[in-house]
Design goal:
It contains 9 helices and no strands. By secondary structure, the protein is mostly helical. The chain is elongated and about 60 Å long.
Length: 201
């Protein structure tokens, strides 16, 4: 790695650490880009070269946290039933959101209403996750759990939508607790999978 590349990597690391510390201790709204730059010991212009908006830094940081949780969930997933595997995956995902619920609420809001290049990047990020869910569905088809004619991406999108609805309503306060959110997801997941198994029958 060249010296310039090492400098860029180190600067990014400092921005990530400063942003995460300030967002989690002071709150997203109360944190300014000037404070992030000062904590990272860089000029404000340098920060904007990496993240043109404060929300783009938040999205980057939250996506990194969520990616870590998802990767760990896949690494620790043991072959069982499709319901068991999806429950394992989404429990880890919900736990990741629950660790910083205030930030998670802002993250979901900013993710929904981002535009331009940010919208395309967020859509690609979500699509990659749905593709990984489709891989779990495809494995269940190989085991004979689901009709092989079902398109795995279609099933994966339905599973993701079921989780996302519960996540948004929980973060928004409509569902009173994380336990209630997980129970709602489990019930909806069982209903969805029953329909897919009925197709197989």
């Amino acid at each position: 790695m060249s010296r310039r590349a090492r400098r860029k990597t180190e600067t990014l690391r400092r921005i990530e650490e400063a942003g995460w510390h300030l967002f989690t201790t002071r709150g997203y709204e109360a944190t300014s880009t000037r404070e992030i730059a000062e904590a990272a010991d860089i000029a404000a212009g340098t920060l904007f070269n990496y993240f043109p908006e404060k929300r783009s830094l938040l999205i980057h940081l939250m996506q990194r946290q969520i990616d870590g949780a998802v990767n760990r969930a896949f690494d620790t997933m043991t072959p069982s039933t499709l319901e068991g595997e999806l429950s394992h995956l989404f429990a880890a995902l919900t736990q990741s959101y629950a660790k910083e619920r205030r930030l998670s609420r802002v993250f979901i809001k900013e993710l929904l209403f981002t535009d331009g290049a940010g919208r395309a990047e967020s859509a690609a990020w979500t699509f990659d996750f749905v593709k990984r869910i489709a891989g779990v569905v495809r494995n269940a088809q190989r085991r004979g759990e689901l009709d092989p004619s079902i398109e795995p991406m279609d099933a994966a999108q339905q599973v993701f939508s079921t989780h996302y609805f519960g996540l948004v309503t929980w973060l928004g306060g409509t569902i009173p607790s994380r336990v209630a959110q997980e129970e709602q997801f489990q019930a909806a997941l069982r209903l969805l999978l029953r329909g897919l198994r009925r197709s197989a029958a």
